[in-house]
Amino acid sequence: MIDFENLAAAMGELEEDTVKEILESVDSLEAANQAMEACQKGMDTVGKLFEEGEYFVGDLIYAGELMTDAVEVLKPWLAGTESTGTKTRMILCTVKDDLHDIGKNIVRSMLEAGGFDVLDLGIDCPASKIVETARAEGIKIVALSGVLTLALDSMKATVEAIRAADLDCKVIIGGAPVSAEACKNIGADEWAHSPQKTVATCKKWAE
Ligand code: B12
Questions:
Q1: Which CATH superfamily is domain 89-206 in?
Q2: Whose CA is nearest to atom 68 of ligand 1?
Q3: Which of 92, 159, 166, 168 lies 20 to 30 Å from 12 when distance is taken between CA atoms?
Q4: pTM over 0.85
């Protein structure tokens, strides 16, 4: 029986050995999903302790590395769930001024496992690069990731640039600050927190 509470606590306390030890016992998709949830809960604790001044930027960096390692362990389980034959090309990136990419990388793995050919434009991605790439590659689906509250402004500017360029693109936005209200304000076609919903939405659009 895997102790997911302990995993969340160890992640929050940045106890690498305990995190690794618990992750080693993940042996099913269900356990992998629960472990991912626990790790994210741990990241929330890290964020809270950072806000309270108990953790510093160095701790955030370390937490990021720990989370990236955890995702690597869980990826084979999570990515194995969605395989299909389609290969629609799409863009994914973290928007301008935001350097967080762990969530984006998870979404990328899930999209690739779902049969998408993902053009990953990286982090801090300006709207102009997205527009140019979408036009040059004939891309019809763009997924934007952002974790900072500030990212919502960049998402809005990006969607405006896509619409102004008259590109026939569907846009899905995701990340912690995203919500139905933010989606409406930004003018995106869809929003999601869960990578599974992202894959389902993009599949619907690709049909
Ligand atoms: C690790 C981390 C960092 C690392 C990031 C390393 C990396 N390679 O990404 C580093 C050290 C670089 C960092 C820097 C900073 N960070 Co930081 N960071 C975090 C932390 C602890 C975890 C983020 C994370 O990876 N979470 C785990 C992933 C898996 O979750 P996720 O990104 O939300 O993704 C999931 C979903 O949102 C969704 N999703 C994600 N993308 C997409 C896209 C689509 C299309 C869809 C559909 C879904 C989707 O799927 C994912 C899986 O479920 C958070 C705290 C937190 N609670 O998240 C703070 C946090 C995000 N950081 C914060 C801050 C303030 C900063 C800094 C400004 C600190 C500083 N003073 O320098 C800088 C900003 C740098 C910049 N310009 O971006 C704040 C943001 C506050 C705000 N509301 O704006 C947070 C919330 C901490 C806090 N509570 O204060 N950070």
A1: Cobalamin-binding domain (3.40.50.280)
A2: 148
A3: 92
A4: yes
